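Researcher: Good morning. I'm working through a list of sequences from a screen, and I'd like to move beyond sequence-only analysis. For each chain I'm collecting a predicted structure so we can compare shapes side by side. This is the next one on the list. No need for commentary yet; just the structure.
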Amino acid sequence: MRTIDDHRREITALLTPVGAALGVDVLAVDAAVIAAAPELYRRRVLADDLRAPSSLPAFDNSQMDGYAVVAAELADATADSPVTLRVVQRVAAGDAGGEHLAGTATPIMTGAPVPHGADAVVQIERADPPVFPAEVRGHLGSGPADASESAPLVAFGSPVEPGTFIRAAGSDVAVGEVLLPAATELGPAQFGVIAGTGATEVAVRARPRVLLVSTGHEIRDPGAQLAPGQIYDANSAALTTALLEIGCAVTPLPCRSDDDDDLLALLAEHAPQHDVVVTIGGVSAGVREVVRDALGPRGVAFMKVAMQPGGPQGFGMLRLGETGSLTIPAVCLPGNPVSALVSFEAFLRPALRAALGLPRTLRETRRAPAAHPFTSPPGHHQLRRGVLNGDGALELVGGPSSHLLHSYAASTVLVHVPVGTAEVAAGDELDYWRIDG
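Model: Good morning. Structure tokens for this chain:
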């Protein structure tokens, strides 16, 4: 049997041309548009380097509520001999900064532009009094004002360094610099920084279009009246969600037939509008395995991987149509729900992320001790479901059987037990993947 790593490499190689052929989508950077069509923005990948159309911050602004001052004017300030300055008109966020008058203190609010001539901001808490005068709190104007004899006074009992509490223009990113490199996965912070530079649209890689076909004469939609021997289709919902979470566009079309011709007709009709076919079920060594029987003669190979659960697998360039003129990459997963999800994590998720050009394809591998002893088949790489307990140890949830979907739903990690391990003792260090984010 082949190893997990060997199989992953082959699935990745199969799907690499899919990524190369993907086009570009242009998305509006607008909160209302994002809210109206959130599925279009989930897990999108930047197509090219994005350069900043403006600097961030766009101007020098205050990091604190306080007073804009000239640092040199406070150089001799001490607690016993404070420097007293006249208070002039305040500058609030959204105001034009204006000019700072020598010998004055300009009240300034967080985010407000630093007036020209000032080079530091003193926190309001370090001023005396440590609150803004009533005249300042009640006045909304900005810009220079006369430091008249009637203007309130403020005292400073310590010096301040130039640049203190000033966010300099371009200190985050300067105009023309690479804001985000190609292949960046866009999330809340990335969309935020794009919008913060004033960009109105962003070019992202088109989503891989996946035709997802859960198979089996026995499967029915949730809510349907079940006849004896029938079951609800858990795989379509589980794998659709999993594929959406990595940025794919998914068309779930279950095939509720074990007839080869029915499956091939469904694929021939719908595969041309997609980039990848993913099937679930019908890949084992039973007498009637519809996916293996229908797709085996059409370019898809079936084999066993030394993995539990999820040993039976299939993949290849599927030939469709009477002449086999349509070819499309197909990945065929086993039908037990846990086997399908574990196979997605081990093979399909990293291969599709690689096709999108993402630098990190596998989930981060971490290590922790086992919370309790258990056994594992030494000839297989076992992936057990579990959680990290309060002591930071790996506690298994449910048994190893591939039908225990409820246990998978209660888990936050997949625990790796490598080939050659028959018994795990409490405290043994094991690798794991987090699957809850």
